[in-house]
Design brief:
By secondary structure, this protein is mostly helical. It has a single domain (18-91), classed as Winged helix-like DNA-binding domain superfamily/Winged helix DNA-binding domain (Arc Repressor Mutant, subunit A, Orthogonal Bundle), CATH 1.10.10. The chain is 61% helix and 8% strand. The protein has five helices and two strands.
Length: 100
């Protein structure tokens, strides 16, 4: 069975064009990233000064993903001092109305 003959691929064709499916998958990926970034923020709220490896272990996720979220949110959500990460209090989703 080739990849285009799988039930998943057949179902994708039934739902619309590949562009529609790509858009839906991109939206899902964005939402997952938002949830993960929020989890990193919440972890740092409970454990300020943690390093990327500690955060990854605490969240049960990969260090690379955590590092990407920290770098992507540096200056807006997170600050770094000598490899230790801290949440920026003004970015608190409960206090600022910031959308994730």
């Amino acid at each position: 069975m080739t990849p285009s003959q799988t039930p998943l691929a057949a179902g994708a064709r039934d739902r619309g064009s590949p562009h529609d499916m790509a858009r839906v998958l991109a939206e899902i990926e964005d939402r997952i990233q938002q949830i993960e970034r929020q989890a990193v923020f919440e972890y740092l709220t409970r454990n300020p000064g943690a390093r990327a490896a500690e955060i990854a272990t605490g969240l049960g996720t990969g260090r690379e993903a955590v590092s990407a979220h920290l770098s992507g949110g540096k200056g807006e959500l997170f600050s770094n001092r000598d490899g230790s990460w801290f949440p920026i209090p003004a970015a608190d989703p409960g206090g600022s109305g910031m959308t994730w």
